[in-house]
Amino acid sequence: MENQPSVKEHGCWQYVYIFMFEYSTPKIVSIKSKKAGVVNRSIQLLILIYVIGWVFVWQKGYQEFDKVLSSVSTKVKGVAKTNGSKLGVRIWDVADYVIPPQEENSFFVMTNMLLTMNQKQGQCPEVPSVTTICQTDNDCSTDVPDIHSSGIPTGRCVFYNATVKTCEVFAWCPVESDTVVPKPALLGVAENFTVLIKNNIRYPKFNFTKRNILDTVNTSYLSKCIFNRKTDPNCPIFRLRDIVMEANADFQEMAVQGGVMGIQIKWDCDLDKSASKCIPEYSFRRLDNKNEEHNVAPGYNFRFAKYYKDVNNTETRTLIKAYGIRFEVLVFGQAGKFNIIPTMINIGSGLALLGVATVLCDIIVLYLLKKKYYYREKKYKYVEDYELGINEQDTYKTSQ
Fold first, then answer.
1. H-helix or E-strand containing 6?
2. What are phi and psi of 132, to 5 degrees?
3. Residue 227, CB half-sphere, CA atoms under 13 Å: how many?
4. What is the model's pTM?
5. Beta pairing partners, 114
6. pLDDT tens digits for 236-255?
7. CA torsion, points 4, 6, 11, 12, in degrees to nearest 10?
8. Cβ within 8 Å of residue 238, ≥6 positions away
9. Are 364 and 296 in contact (CB under 8 A)?
10. SS3 state of residue 356
11. What is the Cα 238 distance to its own chain's centre?
């Protein structure tokens, strides 16, 4: 009869043999050790705290979630009066300072401006700068417009004033000079303007809709309320100064060169509770760079023109470089509602995590405690093949 393969053979065949022909099964050993018992229950307690406290209570692991879909519309109100050397006494209403009248999830309020009036197309000197000051025509290029130029160069060097000569351009004349920004801002009173923000939201997975003008708000209240975090936290009408102040910024300083503000509306709703408890939370922050030491091209501005014909039927325009504050309305959030599937998945994951306590205790008992060799001997038991054991007994009896 051929001999059985020996487990004691050296080389990789030993590991192949063990892998193929040995089976390990867990053995329950009750160890009466205070240290092991305390460690085991402590780990199990921590796992239960994590599963119940973090997964189910804090993260609401029994719910399924949906992201918010949103639409925003705004309506700014306010009137301002200016008395300048170019325009004289003038009234500014919402049609003048909100540009354009409607945008998607944002609005712009003009707070300052540079006016270049009565521009007509023709030839005129450039505004003096390092690249435009000249002495002779040879210092000026011809028909090679620079990206910073106000028009097409003619190649001539002409007087800008009695003492300074600059290169001539074919452009809208006189060209704009924007080296000095009015300070304080011409429309600094815009800080008292208000904006009504209407925000409609929907959670399609739960077929749930709502808006930030709550059901408890009536026309009388809406006509006189202004958002205040303590007294009127649910009012959808905001004073522009309050928005900037909540972002730790100064409106008058910001109004000079403009900037970008973020109005954040957070909708976090627990739909297992009453729908009346699903209300928005407002917060505000400045989005543009306000670091004075590293602030190239600060603020927010753009140009637009108003065209008309003069008495000679010549096309004329007023160029306006508008400085102001752009308000971005940022809506985000999620809603949750009970669902059996995530509940069962998280319960199963929690039960599986409890097995970690056994693994960690085994490591402590079998490798760290003083009696580790004794516990290891009690936990692991090696059993020979039953049929091999019977054959060996029969062989022994026959030899007798």
1. none
2. -110, -20
3. 27
4. 0.79
5. 321
6. 999 999 999 999 999 999 99
7. 60
8. 194, 195, 197, 226, 227, 263, 282
9. no
10. helix
11. 22
